[in-house]
Structures are given as structure tokens and as C-alpha cells.
Specification:
This protein is α/β, with parallel strands linked by helices. The chain has helices at about 15-25, 40-60, 75-85, 100-110, 120-130, 155-160, 195-205, 235-240, 255-265, 275-285, 305-315, 435-445, 480-485, 515-525; strands spanning about 25-30, 35-40, 65-70, 90-95, 115, 135-140, 155, 175-180, 190-195, 220-225, 245-250, 270, 295-300, 320-325, 330-335, 350, 355-360, 375-380, 405-410, 415-420, 425-430, 430-435, 450-460, 465-470, 500-505. It has a nine-stranded mixed sheet, with helices on both faces. Strands 7-6-5-3-4-8-9 form a seven-stranded mixed sheet, sandwiched between helices. β5, α5 (about 120-130) and β6 (about 135-140) form a beta-alpha-beta unit. α1 (about 15-25) packs antiparallel against α2, α7 packs across α8 (about 235-240) and α9 (about 255-265) packs across α10. Bound molecules: adenosine monophosphate. Adenosine monophosphate binds next to β14, β19 and β20. Adenosine monophosphate binds near residues 348, 406 and 422.
């Protein structure tokens, strides 16, 4: 017998519709890649997103069509998201930091019909457009004055100007596709994760819980995590739902730029990858300044080093929540909120609502949740992928419907997850596993280290041994022995790196994580 409640499909337009009706004058602030600050509010975003939908419809975009964005976080990008998704088309976010040939491959695979791009991304567009025949029109997220003459593009501002803002959003099934994001693809071709309205809706609600992102309508949210990195971790849905002021920082995410925006806008909450928090911390230490309004940050995407969390919490009084997730999970899987500022959240935390997890051994048998036994981490939930776009015939779930995250982890009796490594990064030494993440975290606490990475190198007796690679802080010099002495007592004896190598820069991938594939190629196998 069906319940007797109203029909209210969980479609994403409702987030912005809600913000317009109940938080209409709450501010949305953007910093353009070129530096200028613009201000508007949720009412403006809603109106302009509808005008954009109108332009899309007039162009002939229909449900299921893919519309790509190649842009950093801005109000125009947010309008584009809602304008695309509102009419049932699919918003395909492209990461401008990917190599051009990979971007072209992804656009072709997705068969995107339109592409919206920042003016900053014009050089990338020029490289990929000749290889992307499906693209019918380029819309530059800019006004007429920023339009390069030779691109054949239309300026977003001219495209939406004077258009009707009355088009209807929603009115389709909640399992309709809404967003498309390709995973970084460290092996093989990139794989498209196709989010639905329902999955993003439920994920967005889950993120708003007190122990997850936990911000409220009184908060000022700085969305550092890019909108092209797995749904901006749900911020573009959660902020309008809560009625929080939203600050969109564009491409400049160095410590000085982030700090300036935090101070001028009164930011209380932010989320991003550890390298951004590392950069901000180095700025604070160098300039002897402190954030005056920031209360909480969420760090995710790769393991947050203990020293980083401790310094933010103990020295600056800023709570650090440690989150774990992946593109296939929309993306948040777990969050660890520390009980107090003296206790950093070292582990990755508990599953958020709508996510279930388990550990198995190589044969798929259960591994005990005792905080010690390592296993393959498998997940299922309302916002977890069941197949990849245009590869629907490939089964990516096990017999019980679980998705293998590719991570190795432990779970303790209390349900706290600890990520040991990516399965392909874990170091197998003499039949035992060594966590590269743990050694990296210990080494990153050395006062002279800017970044630390650990990779396995072949070893005649043990199979593999850890090699520590360090990028020193500017102007610092250190010996290998200094680092080995520092690690003494901080990690198990048999985890001690075979060698320490210093490099000018540790390569970062397109989402700001250490690129171990490139590091291995540079360090072990230099051409
Ligand atoms: P992506 O889909 O590009 O966001 O990458 C997801 C992967 O990033 C996960 O499977 C993990 O290997 C890694 N990851 C994300 N968050 C964390 C974290 N807090 N600690 C360790 N690894 C993480």
C-alpha cells in the first residue's frame, strides 16, 4: 500500500528554488580569475540560471544532452550548473588541469554538445576544440569585452541578456541523470560517473548533518574544492539549502589569495584538499597573521597530515574535519569530526548517512573490524555509482552489490575508518604491508618539509621497500639522515625508508593530490 504523501520528486532545482524563496538576499560572492570581486544573491543566481536554461532550450538542448563546463568556481558557473540540470540536461564538469588530449578524449566520449568555459581556459579550448566535433557552440563565462575575436564563441552575458526567466524546471523523474564527472584515470581510460538528481539530492542533504560539513544558514562558506572535483563535495547544493553565504574563489588558491578572501568576506567554513591547507598554513606562519573568522575546515581528497591538523587546531583554534570519499561516491564517504581542538581527527572517520562500508580480503571474505586488520574497502549507498557512463555492460559491483573503492583500510570496533593506502600504492615488504600514507604523514611533520611522498621501490630481499621523497620548504636544506632520525620512534622500525631523496617539486595531479605515477616515473625510471 503506498503512503499518502505528496509527490515531490527529489530534483536538484529544488535547492536553488528554496534558496530563492527563503534566503533570496543571502549573498553569493565570486572572485574572478582576473581578481575582481562581484556580488549577487540567490535571487539573482536563480533568475540568471533560468535565463541560461532558456538560452539552452532555444539552442535545442534537450533532456540527457551533455553540456560541458571548463571553469573554476564562480557565480556564473553555479548558474550554469542549475540552468543545465534544471531542464534535465547533464552538466559535465571538466577539470582544466587535465592534459589537453585527455580533455578532448573525455569530451568526445561524453559527446558534449556545448562547452562553457572561463576566459582563462581559452588556450585549452584552442587545443581541444579542433579535436571535438560534437561541440556545436562555445559559451565563454564572460562579458562581451573578454571575448577573443578568433574563437567563434559567444559571451555568456550576451547570451542570457534580456531572456525570459520563466521556464519550468524539474518535472521529470528523480533518477534522471544530472551530472557527469570523469575520474582522474590513473590507469586506463577515464571513467564517467553519471550522478542522478536523486543521488545528488540525498548526498547534499547528508552533507548538511552536524557531524558531516555541519554548517548552517549563519555560516559563510568558502568553496575551495573546485566545482569540477566531484560535485564540489556537495557544497553547491548544501549552501543554498542551508541559506549560507557562498564565496566562490576562482582559480587562485594560493595561501595569500585564500587568506585575503577569508578575511574580507568573513568566511567561517571552508573545504578543500590538504595541499591548499598546507599552502594557507605556510602563508600564516610566514606572515605571522591569523584568520579572524574561520571556525572550521574540512580536508579531504587525500590523507590530512597530523602536523597540519594539530597546527590549525592548537595554534589557530580552527577545527579540522578529516573527510574521505571518491568521485564514485558523489563524493563524501566518511567524515571525522574531532571531539575537541586538542585532539586531531587522525583517521578518516565514520560513514555518513546513506553510505555503508565493509572490508574484505583478496578472496572477498570479511575482514574483522578490529582496527588492525587491513582489507579492501567496499561501499554501497544512495549516492554510489553502479556503472560507468557508456560502459554500462561492465559490472563494477560484487555479487552483494558492493563497489570496490580501490582503497586499503582498517575499521575499528567503533566504526572508525582508517585509510592505509590506495591498493596500488601500498608497499608490500616481506609479505607485510607498509602504509605509504603513515610514513608520509610522519615525515611531513618535519619542520623543514613542505611536502613528503613515499613510494615502493623494488628490493631483492624484501620485494619492495619504501623510498621517502621530500620537497623542502623554500630556502631550507637538510640531510637524508636528519629525516631518518626524525622518523625514529614515529613509525615502526621495519617501515624505515631505504633512502631519502630530495626533489625541487613533488608533482601534483589535476585534483591537487600527489601524483605518484609521475613521481615513480621521475624518480625510479627517469627517461
Ligand atoms: P577521487 O575520486 O579523485 O576524489 O579520488 C578518490 C581517492 O582519493 C580515494 O579512493 C582515496 O584513495 C583518496 N582519498 C580521498 N580522501 C582521502 C583521505 N582523507 N585520506 C586518504 N585518501 C583519501
Amino acid at each position: 500500500m503506498p503512503g499518502l504523501m505528496q509527490d515531490w520528486p527529489l530534483t536538484l532545482d529544488r535547492f536553488l528554488e528554496h534558496a530563492r524563496r527563503w534566503h533570496g538576499d543571502r549573498e553569493v560572492v565570486s572572485r574572478a580569475n582576473e581578481g575582481a570581486i562581484t556580488r549577487c544573491n540567490y535571487t539573482d543566481i536563480h533568475r540568471r540560471a533560468k535565463q541560461f536554461s532558456h538560452a539552452l532550450l532555444e539552442h535545442g538542448i534537450v533532456r540527457e544532452d551533455r553540456v560541458a563546463t571548463l571553469a573554476f568556481n564562480s557565480a556564473r558557473h553555479l548558474e550554469a550548473w542549475y540552468g543545465i540540470m534544471g531542464i534535465g540536461a547533464v552538466c559535465h564538469t571538466l577539470n582544466p588541469r587535465l592534459p589537453a588530449e585527455q580533455l578532448a578524449w573525455i569530451v568526445n566520449h561524453a559527446a558534449d554538445r556545448l562547452i562553457l568555459a572561463d576566459a582563462l581556459c581559452v588556450p585549452i579550448l584552442k587545443q581541444i576544440l579542433p579535436r571535438c566535433p560534437s561541440i556545436e557552440r562555445v559559451v565563454l563565462l564572460a562579458d562581451e569585452s573578454q571575448l577573443p575575436p578568433d574563437l567563434g564563441a559567444v559571451a555568456y552575458e550576451s547570451w542570457i541578456a534580456g531572456r525570459d526567466s520563466g521556464c519550468v524546471w524539474g518535472d521529470f523523474a528523480e533518477d534522471t541523470a544530472a551530472g557527469l564527472c570523469y575520474t582522474s584515470g590513473t590507469t586506463g581510460d577515464p571513467k564517467g560517473v553519471l550522478y542522478s538528481h536523486r543521488s545528488n539530492y540525498l548526498h547534499g542533504l547528508s552533507t548538511l548533518m552536524p557531524d558531516v560539513l555541519g554548517f548552517s544558514g549563519r555560516d559563510v562558506v568558502l568553496a575551495i574544492v573546485p566545482m569540477f572535483h566531484a560535485n564540489a563535495w556537495g557544497l553547491a547544493f548544501a549552501a543554498p539549502a542551508a541559506g549560507a553565504k557562498l564565496v566562490l574563489p576562482g582559480a587562485r588558491l594560493d595561501g595569500a589569495s585564500v587568506f585575503e578572501l577569508m578575511e574580507t568576506e568573513g568566511v567561517t567554513f571552508s573545504a578543500g584538499v590538504p595541499t591548499v591547507w598546507q599552502g594557507l598554513l605556510q602563508f600564516l606562519e610566514r606572515e605571522h597573521v591569523r584568520p579572524t573568522t574561520l571556525k572550521r575546515i574540512v580536508s579531504g581528497g587525500s590523507a590530512a597530515p597530523e602536523a597540519l591538523m594539530r597546527t590549525y587546531q592548537e595554534k589557530y583554534g580552527i577545527e579540522v574535519r578529516h573527510g574521505w570519499g571518491m568521485t564514485e561516491m558523489s563524493p563524501i564517504g566518511t567524515v571525522n569530526s574531532p571531539p575537541d581542538l586538542a585532539t586531531p581527527a587522525l583517521e578518516q572517520g565514520r560513514a555518513i548517512f546513506n553510505v555503508d562500508m565493509k572490508l574484505t580480503d583478496d578472496g572477498g571474505h570479511p575482514v574483522p573490524h578490529d582496527g588492525k586488520s587491513f582489507g579492501h574497502l567496499k561501499v554501497r549507498g544512495a549516492a554510489v555509482a553502479r556503472a560507468y557512463f557508456r560502459r554500462e555492460s561492465e559490472n563494477i559491483l560484487d555479487a552483494g552489490g558492493w563497489f570496490d573503492t580501490g582503497d586499503i583500510a582498517t575499521l575499528d570496533e567503533g566504526g572508525i575508518l582508517r585509510i592505509t593506502d590506495r591498493a596500488k600504492d601500498v608497499i608490500k615488504s616481506g609479505g607485510e604491508w607498509i602504509s605509504s600514507i603513515d610514513i608520509e604523514n610522519a615525515a611531513a611533520a618535519h619542520p623543514k618539509a613542505a611536502l613528503a611522498a613515499v613510494i615502493g621501490v623494488p628490493h631483492a630481499k624484501w620485494g619492495e621497500r619504501p623510498l621517502l621523497i621530500v620537497q623542502l620548504k623554500p630556502g631550507a636544506s637538510a640531510s637524508a639522515q636528519e629525516f631518518l632520525d626524525f622518523l625514529e620512534g614515529r613509525i615502526a622500525r621495519w617501515w624505515m625508508p631505504e633512502a631519502v631523496q630530495f626533489v625541487d617539486t613533488i608533482p601534483l595531479g589535476a585534483t591537487g593530490k600527489i601524483d605518484k605515477k609521475r613521481l615513480r616515473a621521475d624518480v625510479i625510471d627517469p627517461a
